[in-house]
# Entry
Amino acid sequence: MTTPQSGILPEASSNGLFMLFRRRLGRRADQACKNLLAQWPARVSKIAAANADAHFYASLGIGPDVWPEIFGPEKPAKLRAFPRISGAIHPAPSTQCDLILHLRADRFDVLFELADQFTQEMGEWFDAIETVHGFRYRDKRDLTGFVDGTENPVDDERAAAALVGDEDPKWAGGSYLHIQRYVHRMESWNKLPVKQQEAVIGRTKESDEELSDEDKPLTAHISRVVIEDEGQELQILRQSLPYGSPSGDKGLYFTSYCKTPDIFERMLARMIAPTADGRVDHLLNFSRAVTGAAFFVPSVEALQGLAK
Ligand code: HEM
# Structure
């Protein structure tokens, strides 16, 4: 039995902290670094127990470039770089980074405390390159005003969608994590009449219902990301949160966990490249990805196994 890291499966929290780290030039992740990573799950459990009211959850993900230094030559079967999608007409940049900390809780102070400790301790090997504070907005809405996360898998389906299983036993309980920071063009979005916004998303705004097939354009976000394979709808587990400042960027920190990277890659391709049916996602006329990265979030036991 393996234990997934606590940040993967639970429902959305009211605060999120997303931190990307890049390995410092000329520094190798030596045994002292691995020992710190191995202690991470115990640190998370301790802070969660000491602040039970905060419902604190955390994931630590490791990118494909630094993986061999930390775990050696054996790696999750499908760990690979963030995809480059040929023929793309919307940007989906890949950000050079090696670790991600995805923390969430109902109290921001708890997130800050652990993220600060981690950043100081890992500072010998890794530089923090971006920190984003996400927050739950109204009744789980994105800043576009549409509810985000409605069609996420529920109950047992969450683990079935998000966690590696017997197909890769050494890394079972782990998860492939993709993130993209999107910046919304709020001004042009807010000028669009609600009926047209609904056609862009593929759902109604206030009541969050899916549009009928006749009313839902092929360019709607929902039409692009709902993919059936042998009669089965492909699923990812999204843990995205809105972020932003009134005077700066505002948007969505898109976050998805899955038992394979293939599904995110297929969805993204249908959003940004007119390869299959000549269509792309019209949501991307109002929002632009400015970062993107792929990680593997190993099980608690796999991280603890790094200790010596
Ligand atoms: C559904 C917003 C990017 C995959 C949705 C929904 C909204 C939304 C409002 C409908 C409610 C729901 O079921 O959650 C956004 C925004 C994005 C974004 C604002 C960025 C600007 C992405 C990306 C992917 C993705 C990059 C995957 C590559 C999905 C999936 C669904 C969904 C799988 C559920 C579809 C269904 O089963 O009906 N998104 N999304 N989204 N989105 Fe996104």
